[in-house]
Structures are given as structure tokens and as C-alpha cells.
Amino acid sequence: IIYDNLYLDMNEIIHKCFRLNNGLVYNWFFAYLDRLFRIVRPRRLLYLAVDGVAPMSKMTKLRQTYFKTAKYRADSEAEAILLTEIFRAQGKEVMPRDTYELENPVVKMPGTEFMEKISAALEYFIRERLNTDPEWKDIKVILSDANVPGEGEHKIMSFIRAQRSMENYDPNTRHCLHGHDADLIMLALASHEVHISILREFDNPNGRIPARFYQFVDIWILREYLELEMKTPGCKQDTERLIDDFIFICFLTGNDFIPQIPSLEINEFAVDLLIEVYKTTFNKMGGYMVNTDKIKDKYGAYLEVSRLEKFFHELSLCEEKILLKRYELQEKLLRKIQSEAAVKEWAKGEDRGEKKTSFAQQFFYPVETSLERKSDDVVRKNTRELWRTVSDIFCNKDDLFKNGACKQDKIRPGWKSRFYREKFGAETSKEVGRLQTEMVQKYLEGLCWMLQCYFYEVPSWTWCYPFYYAPFASDFKCLSQFNISFTVDKPLRPFDQLMAVLPPQKNVLSCALPKCYSKLIGCEESKIQMSHPTEFEIDPDGRRFLSQGIAKLPFIDKELLLSATKMVEKDLTEDEMARNNARQERIFLRNSQSLANTAAFVATISDNAQKKLWIDTSEIGGWFSPDEKEVESSALRKNKVQHAWSWIRDPHMTV
After folding, report:
1. Would I find Hydrolase among this entry's keywords (predicted)?
2. What's this model's pTM, rounded to 2 decimal places?
């Protein structure tokens, strides 16, 4: 297949290439990008999308992740130091602490010095390839770095939707997206593009060094399978609207923005159940639940709430059975794990060298050292033993079934009647009813919010679901009483997002935030000090592993946060202010390309250049303006050597 456009969701690539800190990481990074480019060989466009500032609903999830990770990281590091001393006392030499490191994911967030270096590295990579690589001579490159608001996959789909709306858009354009996030498949389905594929990677589970295999997922073929699965027998249905409804019902299984309905678990075939309920309920509902023709409506007219209510009623009939079955299966598994035979079998697995994964293993990565190069097998063996021991300790602590700390209250019979009392402290039926109504309204808002994100744009950057838990399917009643609307606002700045999601540990703050900002978190007089607790409850919520539980943290108070950060903005250096500002996407192309010689592009480099110009060709369209960084652009055109130009595509003005 010949592809026209290649889109890379860069954050997955960045996390893979920059796990360790040594002089070769940028070479690996560029080689990785080259490899993907040569696999796909796009003819027209390469779009590089780095995660920018996320909507506040995603920040709530990020906040939980980073707080739990910081807690586990501190515990595992302390355990590793203690074990290192014990090993050395036993005469077992291990690698020094400076030869392996703990990965810190917070440095890969918008606003950090690291991400600024990544942006500069990507710009260097683009310019170098455009100027020297013949395969790039006809390629236009768009860089949407970490200072452009929005998550990478959503920025990609926003660009595709914008291009589809252009008058001169070529409907035969073939798109290829690279990424491993399942969300990317849903977004690709939501685009309704005919020619769109996803390039996915799969690790080889065998062998010490995993080989990466690449597979193309043809979204159109997936659509055809979904059509077969979703269609109600004897009923004439519109495939496009079936796809929209499928995307919508999958929201109920949980994602980065709202929690899952309690009875729905992906690994318990929740999607199959939702499809079956949809098919049996379609005629009762009276049609489709989602109408994307009305997606721009400010009051949620794109969601047929009366039909949704009937769908939830049918789903609620399965709810008690699902929770009871889950309870029975977990009881059976718990008995097996706690039996002596199961423990012996587990020990045999260790002897065979079977791979066990735990969250502790996320933090430790061996680094090639001079000791390894000298084949010091004893030291390497001792170091691996150290890591395995640390991993085993935390694997056992994390496994609530094995350590006997499992509380299965969520799925014990009668759980539903206790849910609001034990999770929220609601004692009376009046309190329970009021809480149910509020949770259902906010969850319904979340479903509408996600529909607009997937099919149009972010309706509100500061909206978030204000509860740790989702309501039950049987709670969704009288939905027509709720008025759905969102406040149109702007995304937070990068430093504000960092302040919202980072835990209070000093080693975390120092590598991500300017000093004037990080002082706000540790200061007792700070307005936001209470939002960053060092100790917090983790509710397993019926899960087997504690690391999968819910960190019960205070929710982000936007007004309080912004009032605190505004006081210290004046103390930022010039470089820090640049890292904290929002930017626009930039397009790079060679002078020899036909687009660079259109009248509009020529006009933008004239002495009387307009601030914004509309361009609409079969290649690309939108509002463009000169990049202020490229003051030498007009001079470059006179040079015989082919150069890259840098321009800004204004995402807010593209229709």
C-alpha cells in the first residue's frame, strides 16, 4: 500500500528511546524515526505530534498515576539500597548505584527542560533530513511539539478532520497512524476515513532482547467486521451511525477521562456484552443513540438520552449477575493462590526462569557499563539477583490475594446497597438519592464531553468528572431532566499542569518545575499545599493488585491553582517563560516544493506580509502565518541550496 501521510504519536516513541541517560539516546531516537519513515514511505506529509497540555479530566488520571508511582518509587529505591548493603556484607558485589537509574516519567511532560530539548532535537532532525535525504524532498513535515495544547493522538485527528473539511481535499488520501494506544483505533474509526491504517508494534516475548514486529491494522476492514457484529437481524441500519454508537458504548468501559461502569471490565468481555445488549435493545430504543450531524450543538442534542436510558435499563438487568459471577471467580482464584499446591507451582515457575512482571520492574533498567563490557559475570549475576529480589518483594506486597490483604467488598453479594454508604458516607435514602442524581448528571456530561472530543473538538479544557467512582447502570434514570452544556475556555499552561499533577517529593519537583513554582508545593503557607499530600489512601476497589487501586487525592481546584501560580510568574526567567507559553504547529518544507511557491506562501515572506493567510490546495489547507523564529526565511528563497521553511498552521482558525 502506498501511503500519502504518516502521523506519529511521539510520546510512546519518546518513552521507549529515553529510558536511560547516555550519549547515544538521540542517535537511537533519530534511527527509530528513520525506521518508521522507511517502513511506511509517505509521499506527502509527516506529522509529528508530541503530547501537550491535557484537558483537566485527563490531569485527574495523570495525578493519580504520578502520586502512586512516586510512592512506589520511593519505597522500591529504599529497599534496593538496603538490599545492596546486605549483598555487599555477604561478599556479593553489585553494580554501583550510578550505573543504573530509576526512570522518572515526569520529565517527559510539557514544560520541562527535557521536552524543550526534544522539541529542538526534532526540529534539527526535520531540517537535516529535508536538506540531505532524497526520500524527503517532496515531504512536508508538521511538528506539533509539547507546547501545542492537546494529546498527541487528538491533535493528529483534529488535523485530519480539518483537512477533510477543506473544499479541495483529496478523498483518496491514504493515512497511516503509528501508535500502540487502543484509543487511536477508536479515533481512527471516528474519522470515517476510507483509507486509514494504524501501524502497531508488538514485542517478541521470547529472548532477552525483544525484536519488534510491525503490523498494519486496516481500519476499513475493522469497520466491516464491526458492521457484521453490530447489525440487528432483519433491521436496515446505517453503518456510519453504527460505528458512532459502537465508539460511544465503549466509553462505558472506562478510559483516561471517566471511570468505568462498575459491572464492566474489558478482560471480562465487556465489549461483547455491550454489543449484545445494543443489538437486542436497538428496536426498543427506536434508533441510534448518537447523531454526529448535531455534534456542534452546545446543549448535547447529539446524544439521544431517551434511547440511552433504555440501553442502560437493559444493561442493568445483567449487572447483579455480573458482580455475583465476578465474586465467585475471585473466590475460586483466591483459594487456589492460597493453597499449598499453588505456592509450590509458583516456586517451580521461578526455577524455570519464567518471567514475572510487577510494577517495581517498571522503574529498573540495566545500563551497559564497563563491568558488563569486561564480561564480569559474577557482578552482573549479583545485580540481576538484587533486582529480582526487589521485584519479588514489591510484587508480593502489590498482590492482595497473595499477602492476604484482599478486600472483596465491591463484589460481595449485596454490594450495590452498600456502595453509597461505604464509598461516600451517605446514610439516608435522601442522601443516597441526591448523590445518585449528581453522579449520573456528571457522568452523562462526561459521555457528551468525550463525544465532542472524538468527533469535533475539546468542548471545555477544565471540565472533569468530580468523583472517584462511576454510578451503576441501574442508576441512569430520568436522564431528560439534565441540561448538558460546557464552558468554553482555554487549556492550562504547561507549568500549571505540572503543578496540578506532580507529587510533593522534592526529587520529582526539582527535575520538572522551576524553583519558584516548586516552592509553592512544600510551603505550609501556600494556597495549594493541601492539594499535595504525602500520605493518601489507595482504595483497591475490588482489584487484585494494589497498584491498580484508586488514589483518593483531593481534586484539582483550578481557581486556587491559578491564583497561586500567578503570584510567582514574575520570577520566571526568559527561558522558563518560553517553556510555559503555548505555541502553534509548524510546517517545514523545501523551497523546491510546489506548495512553497504558491502565491499565498510567497506573499507571507514579502515585506508587507499579512499576519494570516488562507491556503487550500489538494495537498494541505488552513490558515498559515509566518513563524517569527524564521526571520531569515525570505533570504533562504534566494539561495540555490534547498532549505526547509518553518511556518505556523493556526489550529484555532482552521475550519
Report:
1. yes
2. 0.86
